[in-house]
Each structure stands twice: as C-alpha cells, then as structure tokens.
Amino acid sequence: MAFGWIDAQAEQRRRAGLVRTLRPRPADSPLLDLASNDYLGLAHHPEVVEGAAEAARTWGGGSTGSRLVTGTTELHTELERELAAFCGFEAALVFSSGYAANLAAVTALAPHGSLIVSDAGNHASLIDGCRLARGTTQVVGHADPEAVGKALRTHAGPAVVVSDSVFSVDGDAAPLDALAAACREHGAGLVVDDAHGLGVLGDGGRGAPHAAGLAGADDVVATVTLSKSLGSQGGAVLGPARVIDHLVNAARTFIFDTGLAPAAAGAALAALRLLRREPQRAARARAVAGDLHTRLTAAGLDAVRPDAAVVSVRAPSPEEAVQWAADCRTAGLAVGCFRPPSVPDGISRLRLTARADLTEVQLDGAVRVIGETRP
What we know:
Order of helices and strands: HEHHEHEHEHEHEHEEHHHHEHEEH
Distance between the termini: 41 Å
Shape: globular
Number of strands: 11
Largest sheet: 7 strands, mixed
Number of helices: 14
Strand order of the largest sheet: 2-8-7-6-5-3-4
C-alpha cells in the first residue's frame, strides 16, 4: 500500500510521546502568551500593523514573483538598507523566511572542497543547510571554540564555521569572540544565526554580532529573522556587499523562491524603526528574562539561566512535558514544549518567552501556574 510505512511511524511516535498537533488560536485568545517569539511585543503594535496594512494597500497582497523577476519592490530595498545600517553590516538581503536565509548562507558559502564546522546545538535550518551544502560538515561539541579550532586545523581549503548566536532550546549564548578568533587563526569565515539576538542583545537590540564587535567585519556573516523581535515574517542575510552579491547569484532559496510579501516587509520596517526610536525595549526583554528565571528557581523549578529572552524549564520526560504544557494551557498559560528530536540532548523542556511587555502581575501568575502544574 502506498505510504503504508506512515502508519508504523505514527504508532512509534505515539508510544514515545512525540506526537505533534496543530492548535489554531483565535484572534482574541484568553491565554497569557509565553510561547511565541514576539520578544518585544510588537506583533500587534499599532505602528507595525499599520506598516503591514499600508504596504499591502500600496503594493498588493503578494510580491508577484521571485526577487530577480518582479518580487523586489522599493520597500524590500528600503528594509534591506535600514536593517544593514541598524545591525552594523555593509549590506543585507531579505528572504521569505529565516529558514530560507540560513539555507542560503550555508549552501552558497560552502562549495565543493570546503569544510563546514557546525555546533551540535544549532537550529534545524543550519543543520539542513549543512546537509544540502556541497562542502563536508564536521559537527563539534556545543559552544566549544577549542573543538572548532581543532576541526579547522584538519582542513587546508576554504572553511566556514556556523553557529547560533543564542541557542533556541536553552537560550544560552555562543562564545562569538572565541569563535571569531578561531576562524581568523585559520582563515575561515563565520556565519552567525542571530534569530534570537536581534532586538534583544547589543546596543538597542542591534544583535549579538554587534555586541561582540563583529558586525561589519569582512569575514563575518549574520542571518536574522523578521518573525521574532520584529513581529513580522521573513528573514535576511547581513554581511559584506560582495557576499550579498554572491548570494543574489548563487543562493537557490533566493533565486527560485517568491519574494517576501510586501505586508511582511512593511511590518518589519515599521518594527525596526520603532525599535530604533525605543531602544529600551531590548533591555526590558533581557530584564524580564532574568526576573522570570529568578522566580522560577525560587519556586524550586529547574530553570536554565538565560543569556537573552529564552528561558527553559527542564521536564522529567517527553510525556510529562506534553502533559505539563497542556495543564498550563488549561490554567490559562501558553508555553512552548520542546522534545526530541527538537532537543539534541534528549532532555524535554518547557520553553518560555520573556516578552518586553510582560507585567509583574503576569510574571507572578505564570510562575504560579507552572509551579502548580509541575509533574
């Protein structure tokens, strides 16, 4: 029977407690949201919503084609120019998603004969980029610059090191200074996925590479998403102009994909301008994360100290993590639930987002619910 093997895999997932389901949310959900990636609380900000609406009224509902045909509007280039300037890079290129941006950066910068050194804790999009690239990939221990240097010493040709700036599972930060030093010692490039750093880390939320003094360097490339701190959708690659030009000509997820919808570009641009005007939002997101961690640990929960806005709480098992998250929802709190294979270390977690717009009362309520529903 066609696709008969699907039933066997579905049963295996059920027995392992790894079944995933879609839960459409209403526009007026009563749940307190600690599950989304809306770090700065901008997804529903009036200026961001109006930015999307105005772009749709001006440019239409879709971009109408790939970026190289009809899918590049003046709005796209305006967003690229302002995003690059804000983050401190020479140029930027906008993609339809952060996932597509990561695939582009890794595959286009790792040709035949090159070595890719990838952190074991990297996001799935970086991992898939490594799998699709024509270079050889070596996975090294999590946040281990010495292992990176050792891997680079084994290769005489072109090389690139790829790493999240803030890892999405536990919210810990990569040692970017040490990684850059290892790269420069061996003439390798550094690709940093700053999805969880933009809007949270650095001066006014300019990102982890900016905070580390790496923004604008000719051997550093950063990728970002527009769907987290900027409350929109899409992604971008930031780097030297010659790297961006190369992506325009070589990145398949740019050449063959429809351009980002104008509404998403308009929303992201409005959010970026708002963040530039209100840089305190980034510091507030970090402060809320620290406060949330303090409250959780005081309640006796096994929470990981955050380096940005992600706070994770360890769960005993995948099944208990799923039930814990479900019990939180029943009590009015939406939290993320990470289980294998999303977590490379096999430890299931509740994943909490520390948003800049959370109040003290909301934090108290969230910690109370998580504590009362613990397995």
